[in-house]
Structures are given as C-alpha cells and as structure tokens.
Amino acid sequence: MRPADLGALRSSPWAARGGLRVADELRSNLIERLRSGAPVFPGLLGYDDTVVPQVVNAILSRHHFILLGLRGQAKTRLLRSLTDLLDAEVPVIAGVELPDDPLAPVTVEGRAVVAEAGDATPVAWLPRAARYVEKLATPDVTVADLIGDIDPIKAARLGTQLGDPRAVHYGLLPRANRGIFAVNELPDLASKVQVALFNVMQEGDVQIKGYPLRLPLDVVLVFSANPEDYTARGKIITPLKDRIGSEIRTHYPRTVEEGMAVTAQEAWLARDTGVRVPAFVAEAVEETAFQARDDARVDKHAGVSQRLPITLLEAVASNAERRALLGGGPAIARASDLYSALAAVTGKLELEYEGELKGGEAVAREVVRRALGQVLTRRLGAAPVDEVVGWFEEDRSLRLPEAAHGEELLALAEDVPGLLASARALAEGEGPDDLAVAVDFVLEGLVARRAIARSEERGYVAADPDAVGSTTPRRRWN
C-alpha cells in the first residue's frame, strides 16, 4: 500500500529514491532497460542505429536536448515516449500548487508545508502520464504562459507583497516540476521568452515584471525544431542554444522498406470490409513519398512528411472499398487507386515556383506515375514485357472497366500476349483476383514508363513518342 503521509513515506521502499532528480530518474530507468535488452522506444521504427543512440547518450549525460528535423519525422512521438522512462508514479506533497517532492521540496510553499506538518505532511501520488507537459511554440506565447505572472488578487488574499513567490500564478514550466517539459518548434518563441527559458534552465531564476523570482525547478527540458530555423540566421537566441546539451538530427526513412514498416504501423487498414493492399501497391505508395522528396519542384526545406504515405495508403484502401461496395467483388487495392487518391498527396506538398506554375495535382500525378514505374522495374527486373508493348504497337487497345475484377478482367487481359505471364511474376497468389490486381499494376507501370499510353476513349494503347508532355521516347524494355 502506498504511504499517505511523509512519515510512512520515509520508512517505505520509496524512500530509497527520495530526492532523486528527474534527470537521474530517467538515467536510472534507462540503464535498467538497456541491461534488460528491451527496446528503448518500442514502436519507433527506423531510428535504431541513428537517432535512438544519440537520445540514449543525451539521457545518460543528463542533458536537456533538442530534436532537429523536418515535419513528419516522429519528433513529437519520440519526446512523448520519454515518459516510459519515468517511474510509474512518484510521491508529491498533497494540496500544493506545484508538484513537489515531500522528501526534498524545492518550492516555497512545499517547504512551508513540510516545516509545519512534519511527518504528517499528506502525500499524493503522481502517475508518469501527468509528469509530461508539452507546449507548441507560437509567436504569441508569453513569459506569463510559460513561467508565470504576478497575481495581485492572490497577493491581497495572502496579505503579502507582489514580489512574494506565493503571489505568482505559475505557468506551464513550473507546473511541470518533477517531470518533463517539451516545447515544439522552439524558434517560434519570442526572444524574451527564450531568455526566460534559459534563465530557468541554468540559473534557476527569472524576473517577472521586475521582481526576481527563484525557481530551482526539477525538470528536464526537451525541444523540437526545424533545422532551417535553428541557425545563427534563424530565430533562436545563442545563449539558449548554448545551454541545450545535445542537438540530435532526425530523418525520414532511409529505405523504402523502412518507410513501409512505419506506414503499415500507422495507417488505418483494419476495415470491416476486409480490404487488402498487395505488397507491391503498398510499395508504390511508399515510393511516392521518396519520389516527392527528390522532386525539384517540391520545397526541400519544408520536406515531405511521412504522413503522406500514411494518408495515401488509407485513401488507396478506401478507393478499393468503394469499388467493391459499388460493383461487388473483393476489396483489393490496385495501382490505379493511387490516382484516385491524389487528394491525400496534394495537401502534403509544399511547391517551389516551378511546381506552383505546374499545379499541385499535376505534380502529384507525375510523382505517383514515377513511383509506379520505379516499383514495376524493381519488382519485375529484366522480366520480358516487349511482347506486351509490341501488341499495343500494332494499333491494338485494351479497355478495362473500373468495376471489372477477377475472371472478367483476366478474360480481357488474355488477348495481350505476355501480360498474364508478367502479372504472374508479380502477383501474390494464383487466384483470379490476385492476378487481376497484378495485371492492373503491370499496365499502369508500363504507362508510367511511357512504354504504352492510356487513352480516355480506348483505354491502354501504344505510346505516342510525339505526344505533348512526353519526356521519354517510346522504347522496348530489355
């Protein structure tokens, strides 16, 4: 049973950790986790050999640290995961405004309560989830929001002067005492707020409306920022930057496989309709993000969030659901569903001037097209498709109705020599629906490589090397 007062706490096993500062608590629990071989941050994929070791070093060093990275790189998720390294719950003085350790109080009010009540000081228990406080920095955030402000009414009620610490209405940072305080997009804070932060971090004091206030808080500060803002030319003041112990760079998934693992973990695909996304379609979704990050028309400083493939995969699955609900048949995602889900792409791309002239939807369509071509090449390698392309070059066409599925689609595809053979090399099974999805992917991949073309009137046709906008001549694969 947890002790309910200071006297019982002193004689309990919890007393062994009494007075342990938050940075030491994180370090202690991290050491236990490392010794046990358990994952430091379960569910955080792609950072095992890069970001996680640096975060581990920062915690072992008892540093305040900052994560620098573009949007959609799991910075906030990583910061929130730090709570797993806190004790399950810790004792605090009950009834005191700020969380304070009964065995080593640091606030004026906490010390006064312990001095007056002694071993009868009531003890409450604070769970780890309540020990994490997070603030998104915006230019309108004030010192009062983060640190606190003088409360004249409080001073009058206590019968004290305005400079008395008890007359302060505390902000978010003091309320994070005995825990972790996180600031997202740190450079967006005004300079005077940044000054207040580094005073609390280093000296443990701050001035509020001209009154010096001592705040020896027990708190670990962690931050996130965009690398473009966190420079000498950016909006971060040098003294604050100097007081942050470790500067850790995050990154997007380094390989398509890593990205697919992250996307599969985060995307909502557990639909009651039993929708299924073949691996090669999921790979094309992920490749879309990689192609967008390499596209010269997309702003590299803004980045392409990992949310793009996550929302795109969900939209692709939804289009497969819609097709199955309207036309019957199984809900299996196809390559053509990527084009129907462009709304999940356009809002994620910050375009340069050239891209703005082209238009967001046109850029997104080209990015998806390149992704499909890249995945088809990667999956089929040197598999012969010349026979397929040659059939179309004899002025033949193939129209596949959107609602067609399974055996109906395969019956239409049988007319094209080599098409079913290429589909079988790609398909995940021998069933008609599996082959139908692979047929669609092969055709869309060939369109993406400009080996064939797609016409609104005739469906799939031979490529026209002289068509407006064509950047690749018609050619055979080998």
Description:
This protein has helices spanning 6-10, 22-36, 51-60, 75-81, 108-117, 143-146, 152-158, 172-175, 191-202, 238-243, 256-266, 279-294, 307-327, 336-340, 343-346, 353-358, 360-380, 386-393, 406-413, 419-426, 432-448, and strands spanning 65-68, 89-93, 123-127, 132-136, 148-150, 168-170, 179-184, 205-208, 211-214, 219-225, 246-249, 452-455, 459-462. The chain is α/β, with parallel strands linked by helices. The chain folds into 3 domains: 6-249, Rossmann fold (3-Layer(aba) Sandwich), CATH 3.40.50.300; 252-380; 385-478, Arc Repressor Mutant, subunit A (Orthogonal Bundle). The strands form 5 sheets. Strands 4-7-10-1-11 form a 5-stranded parallel β-sheet. The protein has a two-stranded antiparallel ribbon with strand order 2-3. The chain has a two-stranded antiparallel ribbon with strand order 5-6. β12 and β13 (459-462) form a beta hairpin. α12 (279-294) crosses α17 and α20 (419-426) crosses α21 (432-448). The radius of gyration is 30 Å and the shape is elongated.
